[in-house]
Amino acid sequence: MGRFITRRLVICVATIVGASFLIFTSLYLAPGDPISFLMGGRPSSPETRSALAAQYHLNDPFFQRYFQWVAGAFQGDFGESIGRRRPVLELITASLPTTILLVVMTLILVVIVGVFFGGTAAFRRGPVDDGIRAAMTVSIATPVFVSSVFLIAVFAVGLGWFPVFGPGTDFVDRIHHLVLPAVALTVAWWPVVGETARASMREEHGREHVETARSRGLTPRHIVRRHVFRNAAIPISTVVGLSFAGLVAGTVIVESAFQLNGLGSLLISSVTGRDFPVAQAVALILVTVFAATNVLVDLLYAALDPRVRSSWSTK
Fold first, then answer.
1. Is residue 81, in this structure, part of any structural domain at all?
2. Residue 263: CB partners within 8 Å, gap ≥ 6?
3. Pick from 45, 74, 103: which residue ends a domain?
4. Within-domain flag for 80
5. Domain that holds residue 175
């Protein structure tokens, strides 16, 4: 198992390094010279261009610039925003709490809704199963932006139950502001957990040890809790972990629709405003979170399933 973990960590680091190289070189793949791109096509004096070249080490060799950028990012120094004239890390630090809270709220809703309806579909065949699977199909096929607009129109503008835009002020108000964005993301992601819960619970329900427990006269509630759900929790936990990585990326659309000051909206505004240092930093953080989450999911899978640990120990 130790060798497997080492390989997974090596793959994770290689993924982050490769992504960082692509993110850094994207500045130089843009049309025109890097300084013109950084200026966003705005007229600039020779002094301004010279200052930008010095700030971003554009006169240094390419790989020297890359390693300087990576070393700075490793220390939390992503440079200064071009449009906002503030340190990039300061902008990220201000945006991160909103994204984290949104992802956590969404993940809780996804697990509750997905496990409840997936478990219901697993044990109630026929019309109930068919109806839940149809709802899963409709939900997963609905774009996040469409569900966001619908929720705003009905529950924010129409009924006035929730705020339309903004992240809120204190913690309680922020929760209130993030309910609709979290629901919009949940609509797209609960079928992923729900279908896994349905398939795994149905498979566990037909296993021999469940039949043995049923023949011993144990109550259905006890059988589901101790023998079905306990074993089905392994694949469910794996999908939940992978969903976390997907939700981090999915916040880009929702934060833009609800005008939240999270990482997603920061990335969109930076790309449209050609604030490349900020866009590079946010993209690198998202890739790092995604790669690290995949490694943690593998370790969680091994911790929950002794059979996996046994198979990995022989590799």
1. no
2. 92, 95, 96, 99, 248, 251, 255, 282, 285, 286
3. 74
4. no
5. 91-313
Q: What are phi and psi of 260, to 5 degrees?
A: -95, 145
Cβ-contact 209, 227 below 8 angstroms: yes
CATH at 264? 1.10.3720.10
Q: Is 306 helix (H, G, I), strand (E, B) or coil?
A: helix
Q: Are residues 60 and 111 in the same domain?
A: no
Positive or negative: CA dihedral 2, 7, 13, 15: negative
Same structural domain, 114 and 224: yes
pLDDT tens string for the chain (315 positions)?
566 677 778 888 888 888 888 888 876 666 555 566 666 556 667 777 777 767 666 667 778 888 888 888 888 888 777 777 788 888 888 888 888 888 899 999 999 998 888 888 877 778 888 898 898 888 888 888 888 888 888 888 888 888 777 766 777 888 888 888 899 888 888 888 888 888 887 777 666 666 666 666 666 666 666 666 777 777 787 788 778 877 887 788 888 888 888 888 888 888 777 778 888 888 888 888 888 887 787 777 666 665 555 554 455
- Distance, CA of 5 to CA of 294 (rounded, Å): 12
Written in H, E and C, the secondary structure of 55-76 is: HCCCCCCHHHHHHHHHHHHHCC
Contacts of 10 (CB under 8 A, 6+ apart): none
Q: Measuring CA to CA, which residue among 269, 298, 300, 266 is closest to residue 285?
A: 266
CA distance between the termini of the chain: 7
In order of 118, 180, 229, the CA distances from 191 in angstroms are: 8, 18, 18
Quick check: helix, strand or coil at residue 169? Answer: coil
> In residues, how long is the chain?
315
pTM of the model: 0.78
Residue 230 contacts residue 137 (beta carbons within 8 Å)? no
Q: Name residues whose C-beta falls within 8 Å of residue 50's C-beta, 6 or more positions apart in sequence.
A: none
